[in-house]
Amino acid sequence: MLQISRTLAIPDAELVERFLRADGPGGQHVNRTESAVELRFDVALSPSLPDDVRERLLTRRDRRLTDDGVLVIQGRRFRDQGRNRDDVRERLAEIIRGALVPPKKRVATRPTRASKERRLAGKQQRSRIKQGRGKPGAHE
């Protein structure tokens, strides 16, 4: 059971773990052990997730999310399979915790007169700098 918050938990049956050989340090031992972990969680079909959380997760622009709505997280940070397993589970929990809080609505604001004047003054200054770069007498 992966505990996300006090009210939300994901059963282990919904998590699919696959172990693979990791690259990186480890000497000859790295060629024989499957210490990297690939965790798959089907966001689209998960009965554990509330609908609003599922919608927020599916609308995220995350390259780890497949077209079928499966979140794939790979862990090969550590040389130990158990630590990599804990790492990917914690990363999944953080992603879901981020989707628990609804985003704040953006309040449209207008730029102040002073900020418009500062912007225009900066543009004029930049224009004068660029005009000074030409050949002498060319811009007169």
From TrEMBL:
Domain Prokaryotic-type class I peptide chain release factors span(s) in chain numbering: 21-37
NCBIfam families noted in UniProt: PRK09256.1
EC numbers: 3.1.1.29
UniProt superkingdom: Bacteria
Keywords linked to the UniProt accession: Hydrolase
Name this polypeptide is given: Aminoacyl-tRNA hydrolase
Organism expressing this protein natively: Dyella ginsengisoli
Amino-acid biosynthesis in keyword set: no
SUPFAM superfamilies, per the entry: Peptidyl-tRNA hydrolase domain-like
Name of one Pfam family that matches: RF-1
Start and end residues of each stretch annotated as Disordered: 103-140
Listed GO MF terms: peptidyl-tRNA hydrolase activity
Gene3D superfamilies recorded: 3.30.160.20
